[in-house]
Amino acid sequence: MPKTSLDALDRKILVQLQSDGRMSLANLAAKVGLSPSPCLRRVRNLERSGVIARYVAVLDQRAVGLPVSIFISIKLEKQKQEALDKFAKAIARWPEVLECYLMTGPRDYWLRVVVPDLDAYERFLKQKLTRLEGIASIESSFALEQVKYTNVLPLG
Amino acid sequence: MPKTSLDALDRKILVQLQSDGRMSLANLAAKVGLSPSPCLRRVRNLERSGVIARYVAVLDQRAVGLPVSIFISIKLEKQKQEALDKFAKAIARWPEVLECYLMTGPRDYWLRVVVPDLDAYERFLKQKLTRLEGIASIESSFALEQVKYTNVLPLG
DNA sequence: GGTGAAATTTTAGGTGC
DNA sequence: GCACCTAAAATTTCACC
Which domains does chain B have, with CATH numbers? Predict the structure, then answer.
């Protein structure tokens, strides 16, 4: 992966595509002050180099019947690499887990889980999370409101 | 916003577009078992009704020089609606904050902040967050690793 | 929901600055 | 490296069944 340092034009392109991933090339080129051809070249380069990881449709959680976001912090018993790997693999398999981070400090994980209701959450806990070996403790908090949720990184 | 309950075909479409928001209509139609026209009609309906909120490009945080994710929990002094609104508006303005949730319990907020380095984080704290009125306490944790990060909701 | 054709957009190539 | 132009290919879009 070549470390293409981004210039001002690349950044402008990224700012636009983060807000509208389906913007037409002509429109994008106009907004960043390029003609379509070099603009497309840059976009393709950003895609190939992995700067643009993917394009996605963002859904409304409530509109699809998944209004409940739950945050879980997890402490593992062991700090062995093996245990961490096992945990990561399980997380990757479970569609309810949208985000997971390994945190500083006492080897904690932090998860965002999305489910349709509290019953589904209980099922997730009982049938999946608590069946994992090596977990020392689990703490859950519930989101009352999503105040902000964006993919737009502060490139400015 | 009409509560269009989603049928199996809508869900299939959403599953696909969550993974690839730029999938061509012909491709999408084939994957869900429709011909392009009715498929496009459904996609447009999903867009108009707000089920599909937007299309975006997802960037690689590290590749754009923003490797640091910090999680902040905040307790407010007052629980007045006015204070909550003020807080929400400030959050919306700050590009470093990618996610913010109002949590159950002791009226806590939970934030995910993205910055290039710890200096930038310190600036964010000193020049923005700590200047807000009504904050009782702030706690920060750092992410060592992003184990999972997806927008794909569990529609299955 | 399907078919087919028109309109638009994307994409690649070539020239000169 | 970009602007400009051209043209082919792919995609989106729409009237109609």
Answer: 8-48 (1.10.10.10), 68-142 (3.30.70.920)
